[in-house]
Amino acid sequence: EVQLVESGGGTVQAGGSLRLSCAASGFTFDGYAIGWFRQAPGKEREGVSCIAITDGSTYYADSVKGRFTISSDNAKNTVYLQMNSLKPEDTAVYYCAARFIAHVMRRRLLWGPSWRDPNEYDYWGQGTQVTVSS
After folding, report:
1. What are the angstrom distances between the C-alpha of 42 and each of 23, 39, 75, 92, 93?
2. Amino acid 132: pLDDT
3. Closest Cα partner for 22 from 72, 123, 96, 84?
4. How high is the pLDDT of residue 54?
5. Buried (b) or exposed (e) across 53-62, using 16+ Cβ within 10 A?
6. Which helix or strand (DSSP H or E) is residue 108 part of?
7. pLDDT tens-digit map of 114-127
8. CA atoms within a 13 Å half-sphere pointing along the CA-CB vector of 93
9. Is 94:20 a contact under the CB 8 Å cutoff?
């Protein structure tokens, strides 16, 4: 069974930090890009960050650049999102998602422009709540 399980969410005061984890089972990260998305009430799901397991390249939304860091432990099939200097605007349900990248598409210029499109991802976790209080 293919599963993605997020953990690490919680409540933190503005300026604090959290580290989210996304653990995969039923498949390996090799050949995939793993993205973090978030959705706040009344807003569309938006891409936060993405890491390509094939070459380690990363992407970040402008709103989180310099504050969030995505990383992977390929041996553990786990991707992390370190979130520092959290703001109330970061409050949302955070989801991890996996997107298989075919060999012919494994060039950054081919798939990278669509990293933040939820429709490109094949598997999704259940989400974890992040609440940042002011």
Report:
1. 28, 8, 37, 11, 12
2. 98
3. 96
4. 78
5. bbeeebbbbe
6. helix 108-111
7. 999 999 999 999 99
8. 12
9. yes
Both tokens of 104, joined, read 């012919």
- Residue 47: what pLDDT? 98
Q: Which parts of 40-118 are beta strand (E)?
A: 46-52, 58-60, 68-73, 78-83, 92-100
pLDDT less than 70: residues of the chain: none
φ, ψ for residue 2 (rounded to 5)? -80, 125
d(CA 132, CA 110): 36
Q: Give the Cβ contact number of residue 43 at 10 Å.
A: 9
| Structure confidence at residue 53 (pLDDT) | 82
Cα 31 from Cα 28, distance rounded (Å): 8
